[in-house]
Structures are given as C-alpha cells and as structure tokens.
Amino acid sequence: MHRLSACFVRGSAAASAADLAAAVANGDCQVNDCIPGSTYPDMHHRFATHDPLFLEQLSIDSGDPQYANFVDSEFWGRLSGSVYGASANLNAAGYANAVVANRTGQNYPELAAWDLSKTAIAAQLAGETVARDAMMQGILASLNASDGAHDLRRGRPDWRDLGLGSDRR
After folding, report:
1. 8 Å CB contact between 113 and 119
2. Do 7 and 15 form a contact (C-beta atoms < 8 A)?
3. Helix, strand, coil proportions of the chain in percent (round to 5)?
4. 110-158, pLDDT tens digit by residue?
5. Residue 123 CB burial class (10 angstroms; 0-12, 13-18, ≥19)
6. How many Å apart are CA 135 and CA 100, to the nearest integer?
C-alpha cells in the first residue's frame, strides 16, 4: 500500500490504487494551478502550509518527481531567493513569521505550530535545512506565544492536549 493511501484507507490493493490515483489528480491540479486564487499576483503558486508535504510525499509514493520539482521551484527556490508570497519578498523566516502573525491575529498563535510542522517535515524530506530551521523557529515562537487561554475545561480547545501548546499558565 502506498504511504499516502495508507494514511486514509486500510484494505485492498484496489482501494490503495484508487487513493493514489486521487492523490495524483490532486497533485496534478496543484501543479497546473487549476483552482482560482491558487496563484499570487505574479502568477507563482500560493501554497497552503500542508501542500509542500503532500506534494513531496506524492513524488515518493507515485515515483513521479514532478510534484517535488514543483515544490522545489515554486516554494523552496522562491523562499531561498526571498521572492515568495503576495509581495514576492518572503524568505523562509519571513514566511514562518507571517504564519505566526496570521494565527496570532486570529487569537490562536498555537495553531501556527500545527501549520508549520507540516512545512518543516516537508523541508526535511526535501533536504531544505535553512527552510526547516526557519519553520522550527516559527514553531517555537508559536508555542512560546501560547498563554493557556484555549482550555477545554473552560469550553475551548486546549492545544496542550494536541501536543501544541505550552504548559505555561
């Protein structure tokens, strides 16, 4: 069973093949920017924080390097060149900081750690150590910003229960 499909389906080889085919269709859509709004004004791809990991793993599982190559040129390469994002001015640290700032603005700084964890894993898979280290710093900033205010015992999510928040009160 392929890794991508093993995450979702336990069972027959037919289910595995169908899941991989669906994942490939998703990857093809991303590579071809088939969803309105999936590009920045400069027509470069706009990645969700989980997209690099999905596409890196899809290349591994499908044996097709186009997905990892796409991430390399449209994400890692642009971060390395400090030309990623809506204003084409973000490097990896700027990207991580922007994710933390966005989640902090939503009053959920802890979620940035969850968002960036997938990007950090993708960077590790791709051998992008500068990006990985920047994402890890963003994760640390996110966790340090946790104030314990999101507590299930008070009717709100407790990110510590998910392994994301700090134990500081």
Report:
1. no
2. no
3. 60, 0, 40
4. 899 999 999 999 999 999 999 999 999 999 999 888 876 655 445 555 5
5. buried
6. 10
